């Protein structure tokens, strides 16, 4: 099984003038929301940053709330599509675990402002943003990984244990890789680094116990 991967380095979006008006509005809003907060960002600033008029913004999204909901919604839709694509591919449970993590990690590339916005909403104050089910995204990831973990334990590919503990340890590798990628002062792990993190979990960190060397028996004195 091979996960659909994109370049791992932090992306550079196309020049704003090269994007359609709708995409310029989304790109501008995501940058402003993630850096200034939802409440502190005005419709006028979004329209001006995108190089369009306020009526044009209202034509595409209806309101600032509409832009916000579209930013969150397209992340959810893309994630669902990736999870479904991985589910349909053949492969072992361990291959599916890697494919889930790599496929979701690749979404972040090019969506850094939106992901930072999600983190700000998840961990910070509400900022007056429209109410969304912020728990839905991590819950879907956990469910997909848990299914692969259960299958792995059933076939003997994964050591028997608590399914949720194992799932959260694997999900933690994905979360750490994503957080380092969106942090502007941290080096990005890239897909290879994510694989290394997953290896630590899948292989374990404890070294094999050393077998003590048998002591040479002394010959009985005569």
Describe the structure.
The chain is an all-alpha fold and 222 residues long. The chain is 63% helix and 0% strand. The protein has helices at 21-36, 43-50, 54-61, 64-88, 93-108, 112-123, 136-155, 163-182, 190-203. Helix 1 (21-36) runs parallel beside helix 6 and helix 8 packs antiparallel against helix 9.
Summary of the model, kept short:
With 222 residues, the chain is mainly alpha-helical. 63% of the residues lie in helices and 0% in strands.
Keywords:
single chain; 222 residues; mainly alpha; 9 helices; elongated; disordered N terminus
List the helices and strands and how they pair.
Blueprint lengths: L20 H16 L6 H8 L3 H8 L2 H25 L4 H16 L3 H12 L12 H20 L7 H20 L7 H14 L19
Helix pairs in contact: 1-2, 1-4, 1-6, 4-5, 4-7, 5-7, 5-8, 5-9, 7-8, 8-9
Please bin the fraction of helical residues.
Answer: 55-70%
Report the portion of residues in β strands: under 5%
Strand runs, count: 0
What structural category characterises the helix and strand content?
Answer: mainly alpha
Compute the separation of the termini in Å.
Answer: 69 Å
Rg, Å, rounded = 23 Å
Question: Could you state the order of secondary-structure elements as H and E?
Answer: HHHHHHHHH
Mean pLDDT: 86
The rough form would be described as: elongated
Unreliably modeled segments? 2-10
- Count of helices? 9
Taking the sheet with the most strands, its summary is: none
């Amino acid at each position: 099984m091979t996960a659909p991967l994109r370049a791992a380095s932090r992306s550079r979006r196309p020049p704003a003038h090269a994007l359609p008006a709708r995409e310029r509005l989304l790109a501008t809003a995501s940058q402003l929301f993630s850096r200034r907060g939802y409440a502190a960002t005005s419709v006028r600033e979004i329209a001006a940053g995108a190089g369009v008029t306020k009526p044009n913004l209202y034509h595409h999204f209806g309101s600032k709330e509409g832009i916000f909901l579209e930013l969150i919604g397209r992340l959810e839709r893309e994630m669902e599509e990736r999870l479904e694509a991985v589910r349909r591919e053949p492969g072992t449970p361990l291959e599916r675990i890697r494919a889930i993590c790599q496929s979701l990690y690749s979404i972040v590339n090019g969506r850094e402002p939106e992901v930072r916005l999600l983190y700000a909403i998840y961990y910070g104050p509400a900022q007056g943003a429209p109410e969304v089910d912020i728990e839905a995204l991590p819950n879907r990831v956990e469910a997909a990984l848990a299914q692969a973990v259960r299958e792995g334990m059933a076939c003997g590919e994964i050591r028997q244990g608590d399914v949720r503990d194992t799932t959260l340890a694997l999900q933690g590798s994905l979360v750490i890789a994503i957080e380092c990628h969106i942090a502007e002062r941290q080096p990005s792990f890239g897909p290879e680094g994510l694989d290394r993190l997953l290896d630590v979990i899948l292989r374990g960190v404890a070294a094999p116990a050393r077998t003590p060397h048998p002591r040479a028996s002394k010959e009985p004195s005569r």
